[in-house]
Every structure is written in C-alpha cells, then in structure tokens.
Amino acid sequence: MGLFGGQFANVVEWQEYRDDIIFWKWNNDEIKKGSKLIIRQGQDAIFLYNGKVEGIFEDEGSFDIESEIIPFLSSLKGFKFGFNSGIRAEVLFVNTKEFTVKWGTKQAINLPAPGLPGGMPIRAFGTFNFKVSDYFVLIEKIAGIKKQFTVEDVKERVIAMVDQLLMKWIAKEGKDMFNLQANAFDIGKGIAEDLDMELLKIGITITGFQIQSVSYPEEIKKMQEKVASHSMIGNMDQYTKVAMADSMGKQGAGSNIAGDMVSMQMGMMMGQQMVNQMNQGTTNMSQNQQSTSSTVPNFCPNCGTKTNGMNFCGNCGYKLVP
C-alpha cells in the first residue's frame, strides 16, 4: 500500500502521515455506496470532481458520505449511488498546522564592504514558519498535478531566495555589517514580507522568519576580540573601581589580585600628582619672574638713566623697585 497504506474502498481517510506532509491526495478508483469520510484533528478534507473543488470540510469526525457529504457538494448534490457504481472523485487532505523549518545559507554570501573588493563573506542560519492559506490556489498550482506536497518542497523554494533577500535587506536597512545580530529582527521581518508575497502564489503564507545566528570569517572574529580588549583597557579606571569593590570582605588570591590592581592605580595617581606639582612650581616661578620684570621701570625716575632691569639706578642709586 506504500507510505500511506491502510485505505479501504469504503473508508476515505488519511490514516497515516508524516509530520512533514502538507497535503495528501486520496484518489482510489471510486467512492462507493456506504463509504465514510474520516477527518482527523489537524486535517481538512477537500472533495474534487474533474479537477474542480466540490466542497471543503473542516470539522473532524466520521461522516456518511451519501447522507452527510454529497448534499453539500456543488455539482453532485443529486448524485445517486448505483448497486455497483460510485463516484469517481478525489479527496485532498490538507495538514492545517503551522510548520517550522530550519534554513541556512548554502554558501557564504559576500556583502559589499568599503576596502574589501570582494566584499565580506558571512553565513546565516535560522528558522521560518508557514502554513497553507489558500486551498484554491494550492490546488490550481500544486495539488492538481501532485499526489502529495512536503515541507522539503517549500524549503527548496525558500532557500533559493534567501541569499538574495539577505543582501537586499541588510543593504536596504543600512545596518552595521559587523553587528548584524543586533538588527536580526528588522532584517528577518523584511525577508518574511518578500517570501510571503512569493509563496502566496502557491497558496502558502509565511508567518515568521527568524535569523538566529550570523557567522563571520575567523579574521573578523579576531579583530572584534581585539577591539573588545582595547575597549576594556580604555576603561581601566572603571575596572579598578570594580576590583576595589569586589575585594572588600574577600580574602585569598582574588583579593590579592584586586589589591595589586589598587596599589598599581594608587602609584599611578601619586606619580601624576608629583608631575602636576612640578608643573605648578615651574608655572609659579615663571609668573613671578614675569611679575618682577613688569614692575622695574625702563628709565630711572630720578635721573633718567636707563635701568637695564636693575633694582637700583646705576647712576644715582635710586631704588627702582617699591
């Protein structure tokens, strides 16, 4: 009976299915008198006659086809079963749940980057969600020629577009290419909109697209680590304060390390104070000299002789500085 075995001529049902099957078509030779339709939880049943939709049934349960189904079919309302003849119809069972699928870039994609002629290669991984949204489009585009449709079929369509959409939305949003993870939500939202527009053409809607990780080349990772370490050194003052706080009430090796850091910082502060004092002394001396030179007159007010910066006149001995 194959993958979906166990079907009988007088029972129309999707008895066994894998979690990755989106729809499965029951197309036995004919539906005979006394047949029953069984719809399980998470399934919808669609009756097809000559390739056209006759009726869609969403309630789960067991139904007598002749009395409970045929009266609701579009062009088969008045159909009467013969003794040995039945309806040559198909029944499409659709999985109504939302599917979650993992995706990943097939290969590294190169993002345009200043100073990098070939661009910066990145890889990305995540998940996307989808479900069937339009039975009529699904039947017209897919179910009319397929017996079943799987998650893998949808995944192939998505993966074929992901690389280009990643490049589009990273560039469109103007995001920092070295910190794409922080902007993953906005980028994923834009990709979901584009994918949804494309997959609606086959009756499927994208309900979510998530970017869980973005990986960079090893050289970029090392550069990020180096920048982070330099940033830590730049905040040494803050680090020392934290070390001092942590050392309070602690004993052992941890407190010794913190104490060493505090001693080093205090030594640096004392050295800086000494340099500041020396600079201040030099400044004061210069100011005093400037003050002194500015109070001596150029000529003696008593005899008019040039003073040459002396405190007393060389001619008459007059005191030049008050």
In short:
With 322 residues, the protein is of the alpha+beta class.
**Roughly what is the average pLDDT, rounded to an integer?**
78
Largest sheet: 5 strands, antiparallel
CATH topology of the largest domain: Tetrahydropterin Synthase, Chain A
Could you tell me the radius of gyration in angstroms? 43 Å
Provide a count of the helices.
7
Distance between the termini: 124 Å
- Which word captures the global form? rod-shaped
H-E string: EEEEEEHEEEEHEHHEHHH
Number of domains: 4
| Level-1 CATH class name of the largest domain | Alpha Beta
Question: What is the architecture of the largest domain at the second tier of CATH?
Answer: 2-Layer Sandwich
Strand content: 15-25%
Strand order of the largest sheet: 5-4-7-2-11
The number of distinct β-strands equals 12
Structural class from helices and strands? alpha+beta
Structure, described:
The protein has 322 residues and is of the alpha+beta class. The protein folds into 4 domains: 11-95, no CATH class; 99-216, 2-Layer Sandwich (Tetrahydropterin Synthase, Chain A), CATH 3.30.479.30; 223-262, no CATH class; 293-322, no CATH class. Helix content is 39%, strand content 25%. It contains 7 helices and 12 strands. A 5-stranded antiparallel β-sheet has the order 5-4-7-2-11. The radius of gyration is 43 Å and the shape is rod-shaped. The chain starts with 10 loop residues before the first strand and ends in a 27-residue tail after the last helix. Mean pLDDT is 78; it is low at 1-8.
